[in-house]
Design brief:
442 residues; 2 domains; mainly alpha; globular
Length: 442
C-alpha cells in the first residue's frame, strides 16, 4: 500500500547548499522589505509611542545580587545579531574552504571588487565628513546587504548567468568579512583586558574541541555562550563571538563517503530482513537500525554544514527581519527631509553607497579585466558588472548596524545615517535591477 502525502513533497526536494543559500537570502530579502515598511509605518503613525517603548523596555536577568539588564533593542543588536554573525562566519569559512573563494583564479575578481567596493565608499564619505562630528561613520557605506542584493539579482531569473550570481555572492561574503574586521578594530571604544582574556580562553577551548575531533554542537554552544558574555563585558562588540565561534566549528566529516556507502549498505540489508507489517509500524530492531543510519549520515556530514543549514531559515525569517523592525523605524518629517539630506552624514553615505560602490566594484573589476589579472564571470559582460555594482550599494542591515556603533548615544546622527542608508539602498536596488533587466534582455 502506497502512503500518499502530497503536502510533504515540497519538503522532500533535494537541493545543493548553494541553492538553499540563495533561496534563504531571497526569502530574507522579501521579508526584510515588508518589515522595513512596517517599521516605517509604525514610527510615523499614532502607534509611534508604543513602538518606541516596546523596543526600549528593559529585559533583566538576576542571580542573587548580580543583575544583567539591557533594553530589547540592545538584546537584538548584541544578542540575536550574534547568531546572524555566526551564520556569516560559517558562510565565509565554507567559501574559503570549498566554495568560490577556494579557487584563487575564480575568486580574484570578486575579492578585488569587494576591496574596491569597501575602500572607495569609505574615502568618499571621509572626504565629505572630514573635520565634522560624523567623521566616525566612515564604515557605514562600506557594507553590502547580501540578502537584498542577491534577492534583486535572483528575481531576474534566467536573464542573468549563474556565474554572475556566484560573483555577487562571493563579493558579498568578502564584503561581510571586511565589515567584521572594521567593526572589531575600529568600533570598540574601551577594552577590559581581563574580560577579553577570558573570551580568548573560551575561543581556545573551542579550538581545542575541534583539534580533539569533538563533532557535537552542544559543547561549542555552551562555551560560545560564555565567550559572548565575556566579549560583551570586554568592550569589543559581542557579535564578534559569532564569527570567531564559526571558525572553530569542525568542517571535516568523521567518516569518509566511501565508508558511509559500505556501512549504510549493510544496515539497509539488515533492515530489509524484517517483514513488512500490514499497519506499516516498523519493528523495534528496525528503529535501532534507522538510528544507526541517522548517525552515519551525521558522521559523513560536517557540524559546520549542519549548523549553517539549521540556522539559515531562522536567521533569514526571524532574526534579520526583527532587526529591521527594531532599527528601520525612523520618524520622517517630509517638510524637513530636504535639509536633512544636505547634512554631511547622509550626503556621505549616499555618495558612498551609490557612487563609491559603483567606482569601487565596477572600476576595479574593469581595471582587473583590462590588465589581465582576472576574467569576467562566465557568459557575463562588463555592462552586467555595472548593474551588480549598483546592487552592491544596497547597504541596509550591515550599514544600519555600523551606524548604531559609530554614533552610539547620538540619536540625531543615527537618524541622519538611517535616512541616507534607506534612500541610497532604495535607489541602488531599483536602478541596479532595472539596469540588469534592460541589459540582459538585449
Amino acid at each position: 500500500m502506497k502512503i500518499y502525502a502530497p503536502w510533504e513533497k515540497a519538503f522532500k526536494k533535494i537541493s545543493t547548499p548553494f541553492e538553499s543559500f540563495l533561496r534563504a537570502q531571497t526569502t530574507s530579502g522579501l521579508v526584510l522589505v515588508c518589515m522595513t515598511i512596517l517599521a516605517l509605518i509604525l514610527a510615523n503613525s499614532s502607534l509611534q509611542w508604543a513602538y518606541n517603548n516596546f523596543f526600549h523596555m528593559n529585559i533583566d536577568f538576576n542571580v542573587g545580587s548580580w543583575e544583567f539588564s539591557h533594553s530589547l533593542h540592545h538584546w537584538i543588536n548584541d544578542g540575536l545579531m550574534g547568531i546572524f554573525f555566526l551564520v556569516i562566519g560559517l558562510e565565509i569559512k565554507r567559501e574559503i574552504t570549498i566554495g568560490e573563494l577556494s579557487n584563487m583564479k575564480v575568486a580574484i575578481l570578486p575579492i578585488l571588487a569587494a576591496i574596491g567596493g569597501m575602500v572607495v565608499p569609505a574615502l568618499i564619505y571621509m572626504s565629505i565628513n572630514y573635520g565634522s562630528e560624523g567623521f566616525n561613520g566612515w564604515g557605514i557605506p562600506m557594507a553590502t546587504d547580501i540578502a537584498f542584493a542577491i534577492s534583486a539579482l535572483v528575481l531576474l531569473g534566467k536573464r542573468v548567468p549563474t556565474a554572475l550570481v556566484t560573483f555577487l555572492v562571493a563579493l558579498a561574503i568578502v564584503d561581510d568579512l571586511g565589515a567584521v574586521i572594521v567593526i572589531a578594530l575600529f568600533y570598540t571604544d574601551t577594552i577590559n583586558l581581563f574580560a577579553l582574556g577570558l573570551a580568548g580562553l573560551m575561543f581556545l577551548t573551542m579550538f581545542t574541541f575541534n583539534r580533539f575531533g569533538i563533532h557535537m554542537i552542544l559543547p561549542y554552544f555552551i562555551v560560545a555562550s560564555f565567550m559572548w558574555f565575556f566579549m560583551l563585558e570586554s568592550g569589543v562588540h559581542a557579535t564578534m563571538t559569532g564569527v570567531l565561534a564559526a571558525f572553530t566549528i569542525p568542517s571535516t566529516p568523521k567518516r569518509t563517503p566511501a565508508t558511509f556507502v559500505e556501512d549504510t549498505k549493510h544496515l539497509l540489508e539488515e533492515y530489509a530482513k524484517y517483514p513488512v507489517r500490514t499497519n506499516h509500524v516498523i519493528d523495534d530492531k528496525q528503529k535501532i537500525i534507522l538510528t544507526k543510519i541517522h548517525d552515519k549520515i551525521n558522521a559523513v556530514g560536517t557540524p559546520a554544514d549542519r549548523l549553517e543549514n539549521t540556522l539559515h531559515l531562522p536567521v533569514a525569517l526571524l532574526i534579520i527581519p526583527f532587526f529591521a523592525l527594531a532599527n528601520a523605524g525612523i520618524e520622517i518629517d517630509i517638510n524637513s527631509i530636504g535639509s536633512v539630506l544636505m547634512e554631511p552624514v547622509p550626503l556621505g553615505i549616499m555618495a558612498g553607497l551609490i557612487l563609491g560602490k559603483l567606482l569601487g566594484i565596477f572600476g576595479v573589476s574593469w581595471i582587473a579585466v583590462k590588465v589581465g589579472v582576472a576574467k569576467l564571470p562566465k557568459d557575463s559582460t562588463m555592462s552586467q558588472i555595472f548593474g551588480v555594482a549598483f546592487l552592491g550599494g544596497i547597504g541596509f542591515t550591515m550599514s544600519i548596524f555600523v551606524a548604531d556603533l559609530a554614533f552610539i548615544g547620538n540619536s540625531e546622527l543615527i537618524f541622519q545615517a538611517k535616512i541616507g542608508i534607506l534612500l541610497a539602498s532604495l535607489f541602488s536596488g531599483v536602478f541596479g535591477y532595472l539596469w540588469l533587466k534592460r541589459t540582459s534582455s538585449l
